[in-house]
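Technical annex, item 7. During the second reporting period the consortium partners agreed on a shared format for inverse folding records so that results from different sites could be compared directly. Each record opens with the tokenized structure and is followed by the designed sequence. A conforming record, contributed by the partner at site C, is shown below for reference.
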């Protein structure tokens, strides 16, 4: 039984601006995670490490970062195969060409540029089919070249960079690519969030570190055991960074809302280490003056909680008595006045006026 480790979308060189002042530390954390992936290869006795594209964020990556990546991967205990992606597609003067130059003295690192079957020493009865991104704006299916099954192929494993059933920079990959290309295992880069197809033969390892507030997954890689009876895939967590986004519309308790409790509960539920977590708060709604003071206290505690970065956008107004004159129709205005001057609890009166306002608006 031979094992391989599969990863993608490192995006070395990404500025990570949304991490604010924590961005340099987050960039360094990504490289530490890359080192853990190399060490995982040793722990798993992997026969190969596959990097399925977008290892670099683009051509503006600095020479020092390119060199560091090559040196890091050269320490792997097994051969390393790098597939071009849509961010580091292969072209003269591109970042991957610079990486290949750094790696040329390191026999264990190979950039996969040809659409041809690949065999790996120590991985018997398995044929890999690399599908590199060689054009920045290609929309053709990059897997079209994969030949029909032949007995000598053994297990057939696709190495692909692209989005399923969607024409993007790297091309349009069939949604059921394992069936379409008769693959026992289809491994893909491009999607940062880990995903697996219903057939359990199609897998995105996802990025080993999430790169922004739209990526709340925990970074991981795939370890695949390639056996004659079929591949076995498991996911191994490797990441340390967390991005947590809280969006809440706060409603005063006076109208039946939760007040500041909605935010306090969300903050209490954060399940990450503050030192490696960026938090973004997006708050709207309206609260009473007393509740606004409470909100100030909660936000001050959030700022001092030790999060690597805490980005707060507060658009919360002070709830005031309703403007009954805003109801244009005199009869509706009279109803509103009777509601507001009734002896019902304030929460009930405010909610009733809100329903009345919504009803009037819907009738227009």
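Designed sequence (site C submission):
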């Amino acid at each position: 039984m031979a094992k391989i480790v599969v990863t993608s979308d490192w995006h070395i060189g990404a500025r990570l601006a949304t991490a604010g002042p924590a961005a340099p530390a987050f960039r360094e954390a990504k490289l530490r995670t890359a080192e853990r992936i190399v060490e995982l290869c040793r722990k798993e006795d992997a026969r190969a490490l596959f990097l399925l594209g977008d290892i670099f964020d683009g051509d503006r990556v600095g020479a020092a970062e390119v060199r560091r990546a090559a040196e890091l991967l050269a320490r792997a205990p097994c051969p390393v195969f790098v597939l071009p992606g849509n961010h580091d597609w292969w072209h003269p003067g591109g970042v991957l060409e610079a990486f290949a130059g750094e790696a040329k003295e390191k026999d264990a690192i190979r950039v996969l540029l040809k659409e041809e079957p690949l065999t790996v020493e120590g991985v018997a009865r398995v044929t890999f089919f690399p599908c590199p991104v060689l054009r920045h704006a290609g929309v053709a299916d990059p897997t079209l070249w994969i030949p029909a099954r032949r007995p000598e192929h053994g297990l057939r494993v696709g190495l692909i960079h692209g989005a399923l059933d969607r024409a993007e920079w790297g091309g349009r990959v069939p949604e059921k690519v394992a069936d379409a290309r008769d693959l026992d295992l289809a491994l893909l880069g491009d999607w940062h969030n880990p995903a697996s197809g219903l057939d359990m033969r199609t897998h995105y390892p996802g990025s080993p570190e999430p790169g922004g507030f739209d990526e709340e997954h925990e970074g991981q890689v795939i370890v695949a055991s390639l056996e004659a009876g079929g591949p076995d895939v498991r996911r191994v967590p490797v990441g340390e960074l967390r991005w947590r986004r809280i969006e809440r519309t706060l409603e005063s308790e006076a109208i039946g809302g939760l007040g500041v409790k909605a935010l306090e509960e969300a903050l209490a539920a954060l399940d990450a280490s503050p030192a490696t977590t960026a938090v973004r708060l997006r708050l709207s709604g309206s609260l009473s003056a007393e509740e606004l003071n409470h909100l100030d206290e909660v936000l001050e505690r959030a700022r001092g909680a030790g999060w690597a970065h805490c980005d707060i956008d507060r658009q919360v107004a002070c709830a005031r008595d309703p403007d009954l004159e805003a109801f244009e129709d005199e009869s509706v205005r009279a109803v509103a006045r009777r509601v507001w001057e009734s002896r019902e609890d304030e929460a009930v009166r405010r909610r009733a006026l809100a329903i009345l306002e919504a009803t009037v608006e819907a009738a227009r």
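The mean pLDDT is 92. The longest strand covers residues 277-287. All partners now use this format for quarterly exchanges.
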